[in-house]
Amino acid sequence: MRKIKGLVFGLAALMAAGAPAAGVYAAPANFGSPAIVSQKELPDDCSDPKTEVTFTNAAAVINFTVTEENKIEQAENVNDILALTLTPDTEYAVKVDGVDKVITTDGDNVYVDEMTLVDYVTECVSTTETAVDITIDTTLSKVLSGFKKAYAVAMGDMDYSVVVGDVTFKNLFYAAGEFETDLNDETEVIFTYEDGTLVFDGDYVDELSGLGEGATVELIGGHDIQAVEAKECTPYEVGEIAHYDCTKCGKHFADEKGNEELTEDQVFVYPFAAEEVGGIGEFDGVYYAVGEDRVCDSSKNGAVCGFVDDQKGWHIAKNGIVNLDFNGFATVGSSEMYFQKGSIAKKLTGAVQGTPTGKSKGTYYVSKGKLSTTYKGFAKVGSSWYLFAKGTINKNKTGAVSGVIDGKKNWYYVKSGKFINTFKGIQKVGSSQYFFKNGAMDKTYNGTFKSGSTTYVIKAGKVVGTK
């Protein structure tokens, strides 16, 4: 046998496939129906996926082309490969340029129309770009068996393919116990072949479903991938992009093959940022209390700290929605604070009306927005002044009280805690009595004041005698 020239691992064994004798081989399978595609029970550990193909009678069409360029060298290569694998003195049905012909081999040379293949190519291939196509129709199992048998030789740069149904195996070669091929001109894939079964490393169910009804394609192992539709987020619900989930391990993927894994931040569309958890977030112009799951905490009622209009502070939420119009008391930490227009009234010192936590509705004294339970003195409520004790109006007090009203310190007359600015008369202060006018002690007054049947003699506002 001649030494094979310029050969690399390629079609060698492919063309070495032992085609059945003329008149014996089965007709090609009907490729009008797709392969039977199923999925075996998946292991729980999401092991690496494999695609298993089992053939019954799926026929394969082997194509290769001998071109004008280097046609003699290529013809010698084809001759040597077929001579290695075909059975001597056996007729094989083939097609040459679409014409039915018979080839045989004597172990050294392959013959077409009683001419050696080399002579046939030399004489039948014109000097133009006309090509001679030799097609051998056989089952894929026979192709691969023959391919393994002659793996030590190759077709070099020849253009060749094996077609089964709608699936094309291109640039197929065998080495180290594995096959490598370009599947339908796509990514190069690896598979093994034994006892009529092909096992691919990976999920190639879609690519191989066009093998025809003579094949069963099964996915073994891998993820149990389910499509997930896109969903818009709302303040109360996390959205997500369209993606794929594994029902076993819970991982997310961008593709139905599970090749490109996605992180949760890539999959889920959160209405609020992670740094807003426990605080306040804005959604479509409305502010919300943000829970641990980065959605509105609709159970939140009360004070919550966060950013509103880029300003950090305490605000009041009701059912998770921040009320920027809230006025009243709310607990912040261990203190009771007064809010105006949704924020702590830090500049407010004085009397306010409201209902502090655990107290009844009433009028209370706040200092810089904080409820004071120790304040004692006067505070203005509306247009009137009231006496406060322990932070609230002292309704039990009637009489003269020392304090400050309108910035003036003096003794004032109160009735049930309210300053009476119309009061005129005598009030006891300590062990003495004094004259009050317009509700306040009048130390400028000298004279007398009659009350009932008693006339009081007054000097510098102080009663010094009666008559």
Descriptive terms for the model:
467 residues, mainly beta, 14-stranded mixed sheet, four-stranded antiparallel sheet, 6 helices, disordered N terminus
List the helices and strands and how they pair.
Elements: H1 12-15, E1 36-39, E2 50-55, E3 59-66, H2 71-85, E4 92-96, E5 99-105, E6 110-112, E7 115-116, H3 117-124, E8 132-139, H4 140-149, E9 159-164, E10 167-175, E11 178-183, E12 188-194, E13 197-201, H5 205-208, E14 215-220, E15 225-228, E16 239-240, E17 243-246, E18 252-253, E19 261-262, H6 264-267, E20 268-269, E21 280-283, E22 286-289, E23 302-308, E24 311-318, E25 321-322, E26 328-332, E27 335-340, E28 343-344, E29 350-354, E30 362-367, E31 370-371, E32 376-381, E33 384-389, E34 392-393, E35 399-405, E36 408-415, E37 418-419, E38 425-429, E39 432-437, E40 440-441, E41 447-451, E42 454-459, E43 462-466
Parallel strand pairs: 1-14
Antiparallel strand pairs: 2-13, 2-14, 3-8, 3-9, 4-5, 4-8, 5-6, 6-7, 9-10, 10-11, 11-12, 12-13, 15-17, 16-20, 17-18, 18-19, 21-22, 23-24, 24-25, 26-27, 27-28, 29-30, 30-31, 32-33, 33-34, 35-36, 36-37, 38-39, 39-40, 41-42, 42-43
Helix pairs in contact: 2-3
Describe, in plain words, how this protein is organized in 3D:
The structure is a single chain. The protein is mainly β. Among the domains are: 209 residues, no CATH class; 45 residues, no CATH class. It is built from 6 helices and 43 strands. The strands form 11 sheets. A 14-stranded mixed beta sheet has the order 1-14-2-13-12-11-10-9-3-8-4-5-6-7. A 4-stranded antiparallel beta sheet has the order 15-17-18-19. The N terminus is likely disordered.
